[in-house]
Amino acid sequence: MSDGPDGERLKALEVKLKAANKAATPGTAEEHHISGAQAGWRMVTELVVGLLMGFGVGYGMDHVFGTIPIFLIIMTMLGFAAGVRAMMRSAEEIAAKSAAEAAKD
């Protein structure tokens, strides 16, 4: 019987583990180009979310205060404005990335 673990087997196992870890670690992730469809869906989603948030808040305010749908109309318009603003911000961000890629190439 041996008193302790076999040193050669442990070293071989350590080498195998290092090789496996090196193979398993992903390389540096490259930033992928945003396609036109992805950008379009992102902008549509931002607009719809703005509208729905405004609609929901306005409806809730009208329900709480017991008013006619004045808050619904006002908040829906504010939600639309917020959605358009978010869309414009996204368009500027995408344009800046495209310009940076064009300058890099």
Distinctive features:
3 helices; 105 residues
Question: Major sheet: size, sense and barrel closure?
Answer: none
Oligomer: single chain
SSE topology string: HHH
* Low-confidence runs: none
The percentage helix is over 70%
Strand content: under 5%
Separate helix tally: 3
SS content category: mainly alpha
Number of strand elements: 0
**Radius of gyration, in angstroms, nearest whole number:** 28 Å
End-to-end gap: 66 Å
The number of distinct structural domains comes to 1
Q: What is the typical, i.e. mean, pLDDT?
A: 87
Using the alpha-carbon principal axes, give the shape.
elongated
Describe the structure.
The protein has 105 residues and is mainly alpha-helical. The chain has one domain (31-104). Helices cover 79% and strands 0% of the residues. The chain contains three helices and no strands. α2 (36-65) packs antiparallel against α3. The N and C termini lie far apart (66 Å). The mean pLDDT is 87.
Write a brief caption for the model.
The protein has helices at 7-24, 36-65, 70-104.
List the topology elements:
Layout: H1 7-24, H2 36-65, H3 70-104
